[in-house]
Design a protein that fits this description.
Elements: E1 9-16, H1 24-34, E2 38-42, H2 53-58, E3 63-67, E4 75-79, E5 84-88, E6 99-105, E7 113-120, H3 134-153, E8 160-165, H4 178-181, H5 189-201, E9 205-206, H6 207-211, E10 221-222, H7 230-234, E11 237-238, E12 241-245, E13 253-258, E14 274-279
Parallel strand pairs: 1-2, 7-8
Antiparallel strand pairs: 1-14, 2-4, 3-4, 5-6, 6-7, 8-12, 9-12, 10-11, 13-14
Helix pairs in contact: 3-5
Length: about 280
């Protein structure tokens, strides 16, 4: 593709849909409202053969990279533009469909393309002690392996996007009550340390906090335990969904949004989509 033909704007949406087939009408609603060029999905909960590929192609996303399994996990990248170099990566010896990447053209990248990574980090269970909770130990090991992979195989000069449900809210303002949540999985000091090491691996930039100052509360997840509109009135949220970029794309950041209203679309995912717009400087 010639440089003149490269897209000058790349709008990337990321969403833990908690079942893509159940949330398909919501996905259409998101597409109509946000018009993203690339959509990264987590928790698709469907094998690739049953993924609604035809419907999404009809909606303008014929280029698809899928890594799905029955009933659990699953990640996908959908694109208006061709996807190249698709990779499915497994972590901690488990083939559980939590990481997929692909390259998409973009004029605002020094390389003429962006490597997009869609990641779904394990939740970690309920007890924040790796000695007694194997799920929490696995979560920490998972984050460490991802960090080491980027350190060994990529660099800060590579134009990349890392997005998805990281299941960690790193800043005090990423949770509704920092003191209480510091003892709850997703906001414990050890998880935050592991996520910081991953962020440091190739100098990832947290795009959300480029646009929303770290001093301001920002949430993307509200528990299903909050029925009806209670999630909105109590606002006991956490920021678990992230969009990170590397330095070559820093100047291209044009806009960021949490599509908060989507949390109220019935039947809801407990996550809201996040959307980043990259525009050629």
């Amino acid at each position: 593709m010639s440089s003149a033909a490269l897209p000058s704007v790349l709008r990337i949406a990321s969403w833990n849909v908690n079942s893509v087939r159940l949330r398909l009408p919501h996905l259409e609603r998101l597409i109509r409202a946000q018009d993203p060029d690339v959509i990264c999905l987590q928790e698709t909960k469907v094998i690739d053969a049953l993924f609604p590929a035809g419907v999404l192609a009809d909606w303008g996303y014929p280029h698809q990279a899928l890594s799905g399994m029955k009933s659990y996990n699953g990640v996908a990248i959908l694109s208006r533009w061709p996807l190249e170099d698709v990779q499915r990566v497994s972590w901690c010896g488990r083939d559980d469909c939590r990481h997929i990447s692909a390259r998409v053209a973009f004029a605002g990248s020094p390389q003429g393309s962006v490597e997009v990574h869609c990641l779904y980090v394990p939740a970690g269970g309920d007890i924040p002690d790796p000695e007694v909770n194997p799920k929490f130990a696995h979560k920490l090991a998972f984050l460490h392996e991802v960090e080491q992979w980027f350190l060994a195989r990529r660099g800060y000069h590579d134009a990349m996007v890392l997005t998805g449900d990281f299941n960690v809210a790193p800043l005090p303002t990423d949770v509704w009550d920092h003191k209480k949540m510091s003892r709850v999985i997703t906001h414990t000091p050890v998880e935050i340390l592991h996520l910081q090491r991953l962020q440091d691996s190739v100098r990832w930039i947290d795009s959300a906090r480029t646009f929303v100052p770290p001093s301001e509360p920002l949430f993307t997840w509200w528990s299903y335990r909050q029925q009806g509109d209670a999630w909105q009135t109590s606002n006991r949220g956490r920021r678990l969904d992230h969009l990170w970029i590397t330095e070559p794309l820093a100047a291209a950041q044009a806009d960021f949004e949490v599509v908060r209203d989507a949390r109220g679309w019935e039947p809801p995912s407990d996550h809201a989509p996040v959307v980043l717009t990259l525009r050629t400087p």
